[in-house]
Design a protein that fits this description.
- Helices cover 25% and strands 19% of the residues.
- The chain has helices spanning 3-14, 44-56, 66-76, 186-192, 206-216, 229-234, 241-245, and strands spanning 85-90, 100-104, 109-114, 142-152, 155-162, 177-181, 204-205, 221-225.
- Strands 3-2-1-8-4-5-6-7 form an eight-stranded mixed β-sheet.
Length: 255
Amino acid sequence: MTKAHGILAAVLIAAGISLGVHRADSLSNHPTIKTVPVAKADSAVTRSEWVSLYDSLGLKKQGLSERAFYYAWFGFQKIKLDNPIMAIVDFTQSSRNKRLYVIDLLKKKVLYNTYVAHGRNSGNEFAEHFSNANSSFQSSLGFYKTLGTYQGKHGLSLRLEGLEKGINDRALERAIVMHGADYVSESFIKNTGRLGRSLGCPAVSIADSKKLINMLYNGAGLFIYSGDQHYLEKSSLLAGMEAVSGIHALGVSRL
């Protein structure tokens, strides 16, 4: 933990605010959590910190690309999270892989690494097509903030607010949520060679869903990445990244 994060944690504890995970039920029952700002995106400390965090968490060994992690880290500098958890979905990977990573930004630890589905019209084994349109049944890329929970046809489900206009801002309208699904399982992969697909939701396994939703509800961050060039050029949350970070077309420059 950095000195700044240590001071932040002490202030929050002194104020009687819990940074732990609360039981997820209805939105109206969720406690209010004060926002947790991350370091400024243009600081040299931030550039060195993301490299250190990526390495110390062993994310390369777990399959998360350096590029996906840095994009998530950079974008979340511009978003105040109410729950200091950052989740990354890496759609450059096969759906046969555990491509959902849940990271505690204060404790600096990987809380979960598991399977996640993409929309059925985004592709078969790999997600290759993305849309913000109703009835597209495709996944939407970009940055999200988690909201509250509800009980739906898939059981406990987590509402997601898309933060990028024209990219994922119809998430609530499209009912794009995190929920459990029986087609997200190792047995499904064994039988079909890939995970099952959703109607656009980042669906997870039934076994994992409740635990994940309890970690993420009420103001955590979610970033869905694919390396799609159109998204990278259009995203306002990633604007100015090359000038600040030294990230280049051929890879990430560790400055």
